Amino acid sequence: MGQSYCELISWQKAMDFVMRVYGTTKTFPRDEVYGLASQLRRSAVLIPANITEGQDDSPRKSSSTFLEEPKATG
Known about the structure:
- By secondary structure, the protein is mostly helical.
- The protein has 2 helices and no strands.
- The chain has helices spanning 9-25, 36-54.
């Protein structure tokens, strides 16, 4: 594969999603900061984290198969 996880469109979109979730949860009531807001933030961060882990160069690359960018056809 050879490309960095930062170059993956899926990772970039996941990071955009994280930023939107953090922006939205800032507007939540103060009493939700450690409840729903925290759960949403942690869940959102797991998406790019899992993509990054899938791009790892270790032998257990089974999930990276699903993260490859589509090949150009022509």
